[in-house]
Structure formats: structure tokens, C-alpha cells
Amino acid sequence: MDAQVSAVLGRVMAQRRTVATAADYVRGLSAGGKANCWQLAEAAGHENPYRMQALLRTCRWRWEDLRSGLPALALAWLPHDADDLIGPGIAFDETAQLKDGDATACVAPQHAGCTGHVENCVTTVYAVWVTTAGQAWADSGVFMPERWEKDRRRRRAAGIPGSMRHKTKPQLAREQLERLLDVRMPARWIAFDEVYTRSSRLREACQERGLPYVGIAPRDFRITLPSGKVIKAEEALRDAVFERRSCGNGSKGPRYSDWALIATASPRHFLLIRRLVSRPDHVTFYICWAPQEVPATMTLFVCIAGRRWPCEETFKAGKDVHGWDQCQARGFEAICRHSALTALAQLRHAAIRNALCGDIIVTASSQDEEEKKEEEEEEEKEKKKKAELEQESAAELGIPLGDAPVPSRPGQPCPSGIAAIKLTIAETARLASLARQHAAGLISDARLAFHLRWSRWRRRHQARARWHHYSARLAAAAT
After folding, report:
1. pLDDT digits over 53-68, tens only?
2. Domains of the chain, earliest start first
3. pTM here?
4. Are 319 and 325 in contact (CB under 8 A)?
């Protein structure tokens, strides 16, 4: 996998030294560390942070070229299941990096979805490629607030190109959609949040490409009924007929909600309403569209609505696992380069997880034994060491793959020896980091076995928790 990453970087960067530094940067973006150049350089074994800092600031390479290579990697590393009901698609959303001061490029007080409040932050719009094999960032664009457009002094200080103009978030999403479709990404649907649903031009772009879409709509979004009457979305609740359906399985089981589909004056446009089972007063509205050749069914639209949530999972992985929001870069070029490298790191970990098949046994190192030979210890001590290595059995150094079962009916007891859940991106990053440290001789076999025991315990505990959550959801749906 690292060879493929280096090959991708080699097509973007001319110097091998820069490629090696970028590969170290991508490998260093993992759980347990901060994404600043000091810690990344130390983790990579560099004597100082200057190479990492130069990678983000002064080295000659275009982050746009790396970004344009992400879709091909997403197709190769996140394949879709041919039996999937709705196939792969693209979800749009934005996330924020909280910042102090006003020197960072494109920073401004604006709404931050990660906190739910107005924060001093930099916002980036992402296009997320979603398949049954996982999800990852396929394209991105930094949102430049309007106040930055005419402030030439601040723009020069922050390194913002003079040709760059203010664009709304839906405009950024539309450009990303065009780029992804122009490179023949086989998207079969589009999903987006309320900010993007308000843009008629984005919705029209989806329709021109013949892509079904489902977008969250505000309560006051106006629709025209078949009778010709114009109403707000919330007024459609009075005559809505709900039925209970799951929009997909989450970490806590099937995500059951009450759904209603309302026809509009346009035969291909619909209003979809979701009402939470546990909180009937919590209602979400969606504007949906499907081309003539695609059956416009509730099943289709409910499935697409459920596929928008993986977008949030990529933000969580990007921040918690890869430290995307912990970068201390302030210049525009450095921020964009860091985002592109983080997207590559996210794809790398997704590919590692999907490439694993069969249980893995980590080979015990012979470093300690070689040291004993060099010290010419007695035969009894050599035997003792061999016995200690044998104690680190295959079970101790094993990484179980596959996935744990889930209950098929309410009240089904959890198996006492339940298997571990499927590897998550966060756990994959931890194990990849451990493998690098063990191969470099930085941790002993005993220490590796200790961390692997914790990994297995975490995954089995999560499997038990998921079993009980699934059981509770099934029981609630049955009532």
C-alpha cells in the first residue's frame, strides 16, 4: 500500500526527497498524535521539522494535482458491491477548523457544524465518495468568506491567489461535482445538507447529469402540490401518511424512523419527511428528485438519505484519527496541501482495512535473541529466551478480521465468545502504527502483544455493545 502511495506522490512531486517526505507525512497522520510538523517529523525519524515544514510551504508541487488524483484512488481502494441496491454515490458537506486570531487564510466568524455555534474558523467543503466498502474524501475546496475578497493586504499575507474569488458553498460543491463526473466517477446518486439544497443551480446540475438526489430542506422550503397549491414543507405534515423503515444499519443497529413521501406538481420531484421514533416532534424534510429511467420510490430516497451520514464519519476520522483540524498551518497553500495529504492518508487506511483478508499473525522479531548471541550468553539463557518467545503465541500476536454477528430478532442472547467487530479506520490506523514501530525495533514482541490484546478487547467489547444496541432497536421496531 505504501508503494502505491509513493507512486501517486511521485506523479505530483518531481524530487524523490519530496516524495519520501510526503510519504512520511501521510504515514505519520494517525491516531495518538497531532498533525503538526514537529510531531510528524519526530515520528518519521527526522532530525528536525524543516523537511515537513518545507513540504507544506516551499517545496514545488501542486496540491491541485494531488487532489485530482484522489478520485482514481477512491475507485480502486473503495470498490462498490455489485449487489448494492443504489450503488455508489457522492455526499456533500462542510466541516470547520477552529482557529485563534485573524491571520490564518480564510478564517472568519462563521457557523461551525462541529460545535453548532458561530466560531472563528476555516471552513472546507468536501465531496465524499460513499460505497459499501467505506467512504473517503474525493474532492475538497476551502471556503473564502466574502470579507476576504477585497482585502488585498490580508490576502497577500495569507498567500491567497489573486485570481481566487469568493464562491458560496453550493458553488464549491457544484465545481467539485463537475470535476468528479468529468473523470468518470460512476456516481449513481447525490446527497447533501440544507445549505446545498437551497441552491437551485446545484440541484439543476444534478438533474442535467441524470443523478437522483436527496437534500435536507428547511421547514419553510416552498413546494407546489399536484393541485397547484404552494405550501411550506412543514405544512405537508397534516396530510402525511407515515410508514416505519430503516435507512440503513448504524453502529447501534437499524436506523428505524417513520417516513412519508409527498408528491409535488413535478412528477419527478418529491418531498420526503422523516420523523424519529423516539422523538416524534423531531422532523426532517428532504427534497428528492429522480430521472425518468429511475423508479422514484420511497425505498430509493430513504436509502440515499441514509447514505449521507457516512460524510460525518469521514469528518470524525479526519479529525480524531488523522488530525486534520490540528494542523498549525496558516497560509492558504499550506492549508490546502495539508488537506490533500490528509485525504490521501484517509484513503490509505481505508485501503489497508479493505485489503486485509484472513486472520493476521504478526511474526515475532529476533532482535532480543540476536543481542543475546552477541553477548554470548549461556545456552540456558538462550533456551529461556526461546521459551519466552514461544509464549508470545500466534493467538497473542494475532489480529482477527471478519465481523461479529448481530441479532436477527429481539431478545436473542449475545454469544458468550462473540467475535470482534470489523476493523474501523481508527483501529486500522493504530495497528498500522504499531506494525511500523515493531518493524523498526522500537517496541518489543511483549509490548506488541500487549497492545494487540487491548485491540482485541476493544473490538469484542464493541461487538457486545453493538449486539445489545441492535437488540434494543429491533425490540422498539417490533412494538
Report:
1. 999 999 999 999 999 9
2. 63-334 (3.90.350.10), 356-478 (no CATH)
3. 0.84
4. yes
